[in-house]
């Protein structure tokens, strides 16, 4: 059994590790090992992640296994206009294809009930993630220069419209 819940400060070291591993696996083939390591070490430093927990515009979730280990992590942020972006969704490689990522996406959506749509940015070449998001109703609405310091790369903005129940 895996429980999805709000992330707390106790989860910071495990989430930092999960993000570091996931970034290296996913982005090294696209951005190169050196850029990936530099960006990840900076963005996913424990103190950065802890600061995000105190940010009212960000909501962070983890999936915790019964043995206490962290199987997944998601973070959504709301901008000044109320638009919600799924900023990060990373699951442990052992959980790929298990449905955990979909469960985490649903946890994020449930926590933002009533929003008209949700968007995300995904780097071009991250084909597994793009396939996952398409499967869950996201469509590419824009192609742009990648943000997050990944100069020279393109990314897609994908958005899922959420019908009112
Ligand atoms: C993105 C992520 C959360 C999706 O979770 P997942 O459990 O792998 O997703 P699923 O297995 O349900 O769906 C992936 C789909 O891509 C397909 N796929 C796998 N590799 C692929 C590839 N190279 N190209 C295209 N499609 C691919 C799978 O077959 C699957 O589709 P299917 O269910 O129709 O067979 C997970 O892969 C992950 O954590 N990746 C690393 C972090 C990341 O990239 N996060 C997103 C960017 S922030």
UniProtKB/TrEMBL annotation:
<feature type="domain" description="N-acetyltransferase">
    <location>
        <begin position="2"/>
        <end position="163"/>
    </location>
</feature>
<dbReference type="GO" id="GO:0016747">
    <property type="term" value="F:acyltransferase activity, transferring groups other than amino-acyl groups"/>
</dbReference>
<protein>
    <submittedName>
        <fullName>N-acetyltransferase</fullName>
    </submittedName>
</protein>
<keyword id="KW-0808">Transferase</keyword>
<dbReference type="InterPro" id="IPR050832">
    <property type="entry name" value="Bact_Acetyltransf"/>
</dbReference>
<dbReference type="InterPro" id="IPR016181">
    <property type="entry name" value="Acyl_CoA_acyltransferase"/>
</dbReference>
<keyword id="KW-0012">Acyltransferase</keyword>
<dbReference type="Pfam" id="PF00583">
    <property type="entry name" value="Acetyltransf_1"/>
</dbReference>
<dbReference type="InterPro" id="IPR000182">
    <property type="entry name" value="GNAT_dom"/>
</dbReference>
């Amino acid at each position: 059994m895996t429980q999805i819940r709000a992330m707390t400060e106790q989860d910071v070291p495990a989430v930092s590790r999960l993000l570091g591993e996931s970034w290296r696996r996913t982005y090294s083939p696209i951005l190169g090992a050196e850029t990936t390591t530099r960006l990840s070490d900076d963005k996913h430093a424990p103190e950065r992640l802890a600061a995000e927990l105190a940010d009212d515009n960000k909501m962070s979730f983890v999936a915790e296994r019964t043995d206490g280990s962290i199987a997944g992590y998601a973070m959504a942020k709301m901008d000044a206009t109320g638009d919600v972006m799924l900023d990060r969704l990373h699951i442990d490689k052992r959980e790929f294809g298990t449905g955990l990522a979909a469960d985490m996406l649903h946890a994020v959506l449930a926590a933002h009930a009533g929003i008209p749509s949700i968007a995300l940015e995904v780097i071009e070449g991250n084909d597994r993630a793009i396939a996952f998001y398409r499967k869950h109703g996201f469509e590419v609405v824009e192609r742009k220069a990648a943000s997050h310091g990944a100069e020279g790369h393109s990314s897609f903005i994908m958005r899922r419209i959420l019908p009112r129940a």
